[in-house]
Records
---
Amino acid sequence: MSDHSPEVGTMAFETRRAGPSDADAIAAAHQDSIRSLGSLFYSPEVVEEWGAGLTKDNRGDIYVRAMDRGEAFFIAVGRLNGELTVLGFASHRVEAGEHRTAVYVRGAASRCGIGSALFRLAEADAIATGGTSIHVAASLAAIEFYQAHGFQKVDRGEHRLGSGRLMPCVFMRKDLMTPGSCSIR
């Protein structure tokens, strides 16, 4: 059963909460996003190291372990080149007391509303679990996406990849409207 099945442009998709059986498909979408969209903003060396932990041998394991630690994953599924495919994913986790998110969409599925639909699910999960703000270490490829969804830049910085290489990013934050709160002042 899907949470949502919008049609944006010409790409129909359904969203739902992911489970361990989706881990390999999440990894494939993650790798595609890094290679197709990340490569527009980062050197080939950074892109290679960014996706290095998503090798065929262990790629699903990192998502299953994250799920076991309580991280929620949401996926969008639709047809790409005639095949049913995970088009993208979003996640929500609490880390060091902060609610955090990440959104990745395959390059061929970008700008079709998929990332927005997935982010709304992660944001709703953050609110449902008591979050009053949500944080992200945005890749340079994702800054405009997060700004369009209400995030504010906090600081420029670097994200440490699994290899130890530092990758430029922008730390961003969004205050969340929780049930019962009011934006009228």
---
Amino acid sequence: MSTEQLLHLLQRIGDRVQAVTAEGLHDRGMEALAPSHAEVLTRLLQADGLAMAELADRIGRDKSTATALVKKLSTLGLVVPRKDSRDARVTRVWLTDAGRGLRPSLDALQHQLLTRAYRGLSWPERAELMRLLERVQANL
């Protein structure tokens, strides 16, 4: 496989994940959310109260993009950005009760995506796939 084929394949996988996520959000009545919003919510469900810089890092976006995503989620009443009580230069993002209430739907969507992605792969193959993709990501 050539480098171009690898890059094309990775791009196509990313595109499919985005499309399936958008479809899943719509099917669950969350059509106001884009896949990138779901990623923010998922990261906050894992660790609520993240600093904006850390949130941006965890979703793989720059800080300005993360800020725009948080602003939209705040407008929807799903998150609340607040200045850190110890360092006013830091803004932390907290889920609202409504945001936390999306956990079952987001968990189900993630399970659906992983089930589709891993279909036909054994546990050792899944582990090897993750190991190799992490190496590719580190290389980039």
---
Amino acid sequence: MKTIAALAIALLVASEALAIGNVGSAKVIQVRLDLDGRGMVVFDQPIGGTPAGCVHPAYTNAFAFPANAAGKAIMAWAIAAKLSGSLVTVYGRGVCDIYGGAHVEDWLYGVMQ
């Protein structure tokens, strides 16, 4: 019985540690770019699966991207998706580092449908 309880606790901890946000069959409604180069892509529906405490209530439908070459590619991709009206599926990294804590989950990858 102790083994089953320990296994159940381990699975709960592991699933929380591996939690990542995602949004599927969504449309890009806004692309935000800040002065320092960081940005956000905002969708027409909320992100599901983001770790608790990671996201500020104002950003439940956004993913953040960094101020580097990868971030520029994400921004171009998101603008293309918005302009074409394409449906997208996007996954987050499960952390909120780009905006320094509990604000918006970081972008991992996206697929335009």
